[in-house]
């Protein structure tokens, strides 16, 4: 029995997750992400190399299906390009929450980043809509017969709402591809769960596989301490984060802390899509942790008491505040705009709660304590603010492959 893997992204790097596994004569593409640190041809997986390797005339005939594990851009960001530009028209599978929330992530990124740079290989809003119409939604532990020989099944992965680990079986060959998963529960999601399975191939994320870190509780405590210290001194806190998924977790953390400490400092969220996202989070409460399900009858945990919408004009307001804004790696958009404005002040704080890929401003901040960041030959930012990166979020992107 021959098993082949073609890693088109996230093999030895974080970003553009895309692995094609051939099992039992069936080719399955797992994830179709973009790399947030590149703005040239490396932005997307090398799809042309895949066609050449397979000797196939097109992607639709070459692939049995595409399965996307969750809605983060490094796992789904290239999908509209793959379907609408590269011409893939075969089956695409993802969970119901991923199908519901992915269009918001894709359009938000397209508007704030891709349009600004005027990239040649970009897709339009209409491309996103056409792409998502082709998606077949999965439920957890639902066995789907892709064709007479291939079946797939989704398992709960934690990480973000709707994230899944994927089991695939063709003939006598079976495998699991994990995508991102959490083995530690957080405020709104449970831990990853999967059946005991006999596998020939396991492809699992492994970015922090050898990293020993402080407990999640300790990192959250340090995060809250840094934020409280900054606003108590009259400073502004910038928290770059993507508008869906981990942003809701951090909002819950700060909302609860503000309530306990009776703080009156405003907490803002700049992304307009948050209102729509929270609507879906409320509708998809069944995908959250048991604790959230139990408390939902009393109060919806996504109705934040202390978090309100941010107007662009507020950026010049005096006094302390906390601002969540996109994108999470300060790769463009309003997070970069706010960073330019607030970084020169020693009173302010930039806290990076998640992984930042190489090439982004966020990664430059995490790589040391720069006093100046050069965006291009004409744009320089003096960095006098405090910088903290507790890495509150469990993010593990690049993969390790285990064969039987």
UniProtKB/TrEMBL annotation:
<dbReference type="Pfam" id="PF10996">
    <property type="entry name" value="Beta-Casp"/>
</dbReference>
<keyword id="KW-0378">Hydrolase</keyword>
<dbReference type="InterPro" id="IPR001279">
    <property type="entry name" value="Metallo-B-lactamas"/>
</dbReference>
<protein>
    <recommendedName>
        <fullName>Cleavage and polyadenylation specificity factor subunit 3-II</fullName>
    </recommendedName>
</protein>
<dbReference type="InterPro" id="IPR022712">
    <property type="entry name" value="Beta_Casp"/>
</dbReference>
<dbReference type="Pfam" id="PF16661">
    <property type="entry name" value="Lactamase_B_6"/>
</dbReference>
<feature type="domain" description="Metallo-beta-lactamase">
    <location>
        <begin position="15"/>
        <end position="227"/>
    </location>
</feature>
<keyword id="KW-0539">Nucleus</keyword>
<feature type="domain" description="Beta-Casp">
    <location>
        <begin position="247"/>
        <end position="365"/>
    </location>
</feature>
<comment type="similarity">
    <text>Belongs to the metallo-beta-lactamase superfamily. RNA-metabolizing metallo-beta-lactamase-like family. INTS11 subfamily.</text>
</comment>
<dbReference type="GO" id="GO:0005634">
    <property type="term" value="C:nucleus"/>
</dbReference>
<dbReference type="InterPro" id="IPR050698">
    <property type="entry name" value="MBL"/>
</dbReference>
<dbReference type="GO" id="GO:0016180">
    <property type="term" value="P:snRNA processing"/>
</dbReference>
<dbReference type="InterPro" id="IPR041897">
    <property type="entry name" value="INTS11-like_MBL-fold"/>
</dbReference>
<dbReference type="GO" id="GO:0016787">
    <property type="term" value="F:hydrolase activity"/>
</dbReference>
<dbReference type="GO" id="GO:0004521">
    <property type="term" value="F:RNA endonuclease activity"/>
</dbReference>
<dbReference type="InterPro" id="IPR036866">
    <property type="entry name" value="RibonucZ/Hydroxyglut_hydro"/>
</dbReference>
